[in-house]
Amino acid sequence: MNLILHLLLDAAVIFGLAYLMPQIDVKNFGTAVLIALLLGLLNFFVGWVIRFPLNLVTFFLLTGIVRILVTALLLKVIDKFMDSFTIVGFWPAVLIAFAVAVAGMLIDRSSPTPEMVESGYVVSLLSSLRLA
């Protein structure tokens, strides 16, 4: 469920920034969902290969900045392979990567942990739907 929420929010961020910025062009929301899916897959399979040496060089002090820059680089790679998605310049890609990172952080911070549900601090959805 969290994965689907992340994909849809990333697609909404990409589509929204394409609406606001003339340097970014996305054909439709379906394309934005495909971009979010490809971005997630590339970050999972290739992103760590690029991030790890850069984090070693910076002694793991600039991990967030390295992650945003690598995500921007992967967005430019997706731009090269898709005709329905264009980013003119590197800075708009950095802005998309930053916005996706902030949106993901907000989702991760707002979702309750299993420990919070077990302690009764947060009532889970299943227990709130249960009929007593």
Quick structural overview:
This is Membrane protein. The chain is mainly alpha-helical. The chain is built from six helices and two strands.
Layout of helices and strands, plus pairs?
Layout: H1 2-20, E1 24-26, H2 29-57, H3 63-81, E2 85-87, H4 91-110, H5 114-119, H6 125-129
Antiparallel strand pairs: 1-2
Helix pairs in contact: 1-2, 1-4, 2-3, 3-4
Task: Explain what the structure shows.
It comes from Spirosoma radiotolerans. There is one protein chain. The protein is mainly α. It has one domain (2-129). It has six helices and two strands, in the order αβααβααα. The protein has a two-stranded antiparallel sheet. The protein is globular, with a radius of gyration of 17 Å. The model has no long low-confidence stretch (mean pLDDT 89).
